[in-house]
Each structure stands twice: as C-alpha cells, then as structure tokens.
Design brief:
The structure holds two protein chains of two kinds. By secondary structure, chain A is of the alpha/beta class. Chain A has ten helices and ten strands. A six-stranded mixed sheet of chain A has the order 6-7-8-3-9-10, sandwiched between helices. A four-stranded antiparallel sheet of chain A has the order 2-1-4-5, with helices on one face. In chain A, strand 1 and strand 2 form a beta hairpin. In chain A, helix 5 packs across helix 6. Chain B has one domain: ABC transporter involved in vitamin B12 uptake, BtuC (Orthogonal Bundle), CATH 1.10.3470. Chain B has a two-stranded antiparallel ribbon. The chains are: A alpha/beta, B mainly alpha. Chains A and B meet through helix 2, helix 3, helix 4 and helix 5 of A and helix 8, helix 9, helix 10 and helix 11 of B.
C-alpha cells in the first residue's frame, strides 16, 4: 500500500434516524500512524461517526473505507479481524468476567480453537494456544499497569481502572486502527495523564493509528496530530490543532468566544 | 473475588499453565478425587434406592448443566429443555431399534441429533431476547411434545417405547449398581468438557454475549452464531442426559417430558447457581433430594404428637408438597446466587477461620 493512502476514509457519510439528521455529508480521512481527534459539542454526532466506523450504525449515505476496502456494509464483528478495535464512551466491559478474560475476549478473532477443541482442551492444542495468547495478553496488562487486578471481576473495579481495562481489551484485538470514545471522561488529572501517556505510547511504540473523541481540550491539543470538529452533524473544521483552535467557526460552535482563547489547556463543556 | 481469596498464602503461580487449572488448589483437587471415589464405591454401602437417587442426580445434572450454559452463561432463556431431554431419550432408543446401533454409540449420537434439533429450535434466539425468546422456546416445548405424541415411528406413540440396556463386551449395565458407573463416566466427561469450554475462546464468547452483547460484537464475536450455538450445546447436554435416562429406565413414555419438567430444570440451575458449572450438579442434587428429605420429615411427623394434636392425618402429604415449594421460595430469597455461591462463602469462611478479619 502506498505511503500516502489513508488508513481510514469516510466519504460523504450521512446518517439519519427518521427525521433526525445525526450526520450530514461528513468526509475525512485518517492517515496511517497519526492521532486523529474528533471534537464538538454534545450531540454533534461524534459518537455516531465512530459508530459508523465500528459498524454499530450503517450510514444512510456515503462510504467508509478502511485500508482502501469498502467496509460500509460489513457487520461489526467482521471488523475486528480487519484490524479495528474500539472502546466505548460508557463502560462496556463484561462485568462478571475477570479482567484477564475480558482481555482474552479481545483475542477472539486471533484464536483458532473451536467448540470441540475447546472442550478437549488438553488434546488438540487449545491449551497451547491459550497459553501463547496469555503471554501476549500479559504484555498488554503490563503495559497498562493493571497486573494487580488481573483476576478481579471487571465489574468490581473502580471507574478509572475499568477504562484502562477497556483500553487493554481493545488493544488485545491487535488493531491497526483503534477508536477511543472519550477515553478520559470522568477521570481525575492523574488518571488523565496516565491515559494520555498510554495513548501516545500505543501510537508511537505499538504503531497504532488512533481515532479519538475527547472533550478535554488540553489533551486533544497536546497529543493529536490532527483534529476534526463536528457541529450538528456537519464537519465545520479540520486540520492541525492550532489551526482548528484559531478557527472562528469552531470558537463560535464549541469552544465559546470567551474573553481570551489563549488558554487551550482549559477544559471546555 | 472468590478465586483470589481462596488461594492459600504463599501459593504463587509461576507458570501460566498452573494459573489456568480448573481446580485451583490442592485441596479442591483432593476433594474432587475423593468425591469421585466415594460415588464409585457407593454400591458397597448404598441400597438400590439410594443408588437410583445418585443416578438421577447425575442424569439430571448433565441436562441441567446444558441449560446452565444456555441460561447462566449465555444469558438466554429456555422453557423447553425437557422437550430436548425427551428428544435425546427417544432418539437413542430409536437409533438402537431402527439401525441396530449398539447402545453405547447411541447415547452420543442421540446427543448430536438433539443438538441439531436444538439449533433448529434455537434459531429464533439469533433475533429474540428475554421474554420473547421464552415464548419461542415454549413453542418448541409444545411442538416437540405434540411430535412425540403423534410420531409412533419415533416414540412409540402414546404407548411409549421400550429401550434396551447398555451393553459393553457382553456385560449389561441393567442394574443400579452397574449403571451408576456409566452415569458417573458421563458426568465427569460432560462436566470436564463444560469447564474446558468455559476457559477457552467459545466459552468466553458466550459469557461476553451475556454480559455486553454490543461490545462482544465489536470484539469480533458473531452474536447470531453464538446465541444459536449455545442452544446447540444446551441441547447436546439435554440429549445425552435424555439418552442416559432412557437406557436407565428401559422405558420412555411420551408424557414424561412436559413443561413442568422444563420448569424443574430451570429451578435446578437457578437454585444451583446461574453461571456456575458445579452449581448445576448441586441444583440437580437439591431438586432430587429435597422431596426425599421432606418425605422423611413427613414420615417422622406422621403419628407423632404434633400430628395427633393438630389432627393432620392425610393432609401431611399436602404439607409435603407445600414444604417443597416453600423451601424453593426461601432458597431464592435467602440465596439468590445459588448453592454454588453459598459453597464459596462456606469455603472462604473456613479458609480464614478463626481469624475472619
């Protein structure tokens, strides 16, 4: 694949629910290896856009291309094996499973063991496969610093840790593109710093392209390579963080035309 | 939770293999072998009646485990489990009579046939959830019951079907003392298979579908496939249980597999503990033994001082029925997580005794 080809491209995507226009003619592309953020006021269609990429919603019009392949009509469960992973805005862990099992679910499409071989466990290679993947999963656990809770049921963990487990589960899919829906929501400063560091590491060391929705403008401006702004389902700006920040439309729609917009580190909304 | 706290201090896992065993501690493994050995030795000290209770627990336990995989692990519902149990029973008898397949081979084959039937009737599960699915499975119950009554070629019609005992190398397992080992073999086999399933890919997928189907789908899990598969697995277990039942009683009648029996299976998995493998066996044991215990109590009561004072007389037998119902209700109120959970609590208590803080 050519260097310039985008890993993800949305072409004129529109999404309507009856008369409600969630997205109108949104086009953007995410380049391989970048951190791309989508920002915008509540209800602007950010999560709808991510849902179109992850397959939860099917765009009414337009196309979504992943690595040049049209995935608009592909079922959500098929996209994991293509290399798309995601986390959710509201926690979506498997509450009664242990953290370890949660992350192992992320390996689903990489595991070959079927029903029969699973039942036979010791014969037929299921055990061998489990242990191999366990090793890789432990690396992810190590990276996200959740060793101490690996056996705890995910539903019993505090919020910040659950967010991290969710990230671990998405990483376990071994995605080339990872979609993060508000990874910092509801976190304190320290947890946000940790999370920002994880995202940057995922991008730089693990080589994942990141598509992120986030309200914390400080984080968005610090770590994103490019930013797109949505408002009422329309794309109103896209570009480098500084450009977007300076855009008068963006200020009016989202950041607010406050006295001075010279303090981007402040959280808006 | 429990798994962590139940490991003795200083018991550190140094390999991933040691960390993925079904029975985490040495004591639990000893208890397992001891339990199997006790059951295997039980013909030495139990009469035929007690053995028949054990056999029933085993057979129902296998079928209940199937239902638990469906209800407890995958979060679906079925009120037609007894019908699948019946399919297994008739299929095994029919295979033997019609194709002269030896009984030992009929039992697993009947399981497979039932699994196919289960997948067909479970197909709505790919679309339906909750109460809607319950009604769909209720339809399966009635359709199959009707089928049993009408298809004399398969079930012997209203007269029922006589079945042959299981024979292996000329030895007939036609008595409680010998059939117990057949059931024990299948219990160990099916429970191990379920435990293995639950720690590998497909088992995790089932639980993931239960806990959060939207994110399960994003993780690459095909919801329709796993929802239907879970019906297939449940029916496989029901079919094998049914086949064992058929060759134990040596007679299968059409009326046996009614909706009450289906509800009883649901009672077993709820009382035993939804989403617990050993809980299924505990629930089956509870359901089989509770009437026995109450019966013994009723017999002790009959003719006693209380009986005379209250003039109970014949109504003792009604009391017995009510006591069973009351016990189940009390159970659901005081231990909604089932016997398996209570057992964990008991273990945790003794682990820390006498320093429980």
């Amino acid at each position: 694949m050519a260097e310039e080809a985008p890993i993800l491209a949305a072409e004129h995507v529109s999404l309507r629910f009856g008369g409600v226009r969630a997205l109108t003619d949104v086009s953007f592309s995410v380049r391989r290896g970048e951190i791309f953020s989508i920002i915008g006021p509540n209800g602007a269609g950010k999560t709808s856009m991510v849902n179109c990429v992850s397959g939860r919603y099917r765009p009414t019009e337009g196309r979504v291309l992943f690595e040049g392949q049209d995935i608009t009509r592909l079922g959500p469960n098929r996209r994991a094996s293509l290399g798309i992973g995601r986390t959710f805005q509201n926690l979506a862990l498997f509450g009664h499973m242990s953290v370890l099992d949660n992350i192992m679910v992320g390996r689903h499409h990489l595991l070959k063991t079927g029903l029969l071989r699973g039942m036979l466990y010791w014969f037929g290679g299921a055990q061998k496969e489990e242990l191999e993947h366990r090793r890789e999963v432990e690396e992810i656990i190590d990276f996200l610093e959740i060793q101490h809770v690996r056996k705890a049921p995910a539903g019993t963990l505090p919020y910040g840790l659950r967010k991290r487990v969710e990230l671990a589960r998405a990483v376990a899919v071994r995605p080339r593109l990872i979609l993060l829906d508000e990874p910092m929501a509801g976190m304190n400063l320290e947890e946000k710093e940790d999370m920002a560091r994880f995202i940057v590491d995922l991008n730089e060391e693990w080589g994942m392209t990141v598509l992120m929705i986030e309200h914390d403008m400080g984080v968005v401006m610090d770590i994103s390579h490019r930013v797109m702004v949505l408002d009422f389902g329309r794309r109103i700006a896209e570009g480098q963080p500084e450009e977007v920040l300076a855009d008068p439309h963006v200020r009016r729609a989202y950041l607010g035309e406050a006295d001075e917009v010279t303090q981007p580190a402040e959280e808006v909304v | 939770m429990a798994t962590v706290s139940l490991l003795p201090a200083g018991d550190y896992r140094t390999t991933y293999r040691a960390d993925t065993t079904i029975f985490p501690t040495r004591n639990s493994r000893i208890a397992l072998w001891l339990g199997i050995a006790l059951v295997a030795a039980s013909p030495l000290f139990f009469g035929r009646y007690e053995l028949s209770l054990l056999i029933n627990i085993g057979i129902l336990g296998i079928a209940a485990l199937g239902l638990n995989i469906l209800v407890g692990f995958t979060g679906q519902i079925s009120i037609g489990h007894a019908a699948f149990f019946g399919v297994g029973a008739f299929a095994s008898a029919w295979l033997h009579d019609r194709f002269l397949i030896p009984v030992w081979a009929c039992i697993p084959l009947a399981g497979l046939i039932t699994a196919v039937v289960g997948i067909v009737f479970g197909a709505p599960a790919a679309r339906l959830k909750g109460l809607y699915l319950a009604i769909a499975t209720l339809a399966a119950q009635f359709i199959l019951e009707d089928f049993f009554a009408r298809s004399a070629w398969f079930t012997g019609g209203v007269a029922g079907r006589i079945t042959e005992p299981l024979t292996l190398f000329g030895f007939a397992f036609d008595r409680e003392e010998s059939y117990l080992y057949v059931v024990l073999f299948y219990v160990v086999l099916m429970y191990l298979a379920a435990a293995n399933l639950m720690r590998t890919r497909d088992g995790r997928a089932l639980v993931a579908v239960r806990d959060h189907y939207l994110s399960a789908e994003i993780m690459g899990i095909n919801l329709a496939y796993y929802r239907t598969l879970s019906f297939g697995i449940a029916s496989l277990y029901a079919g094998i249980g049914g086949a064992l039942y058929a060759h134990y009683l040596m007679f299968v009648s059409v009326e046996a597999f009614n909706i009450l029996f289906s509800i009883q299976f649901l009672g077993m998995v709820i009382i035993g503990g939804l989403g617990s493998i050993m809980g299924s066996l505990m629930g089956a044991a509870f359901m089989v033994l509770l009437p026995e215990v109450v019966q013994t109590a009723a017999e002790a009561l009959a003719g006693g001082a209380i009986d005379r004072a209250l003039k109970l007389g014949a109504s003792i037998s009604y009391l017995r029925e009510m006591a069973i119902g009351a016990a189940i209700i009390a159970f659901l109120i005081f231990e909604p997580d089932g016997l398996a959970h209570r057992w964990r609590l008991v273990k945790a208590y003794w682990k820390l005794y006498p320093y429980s803080h």
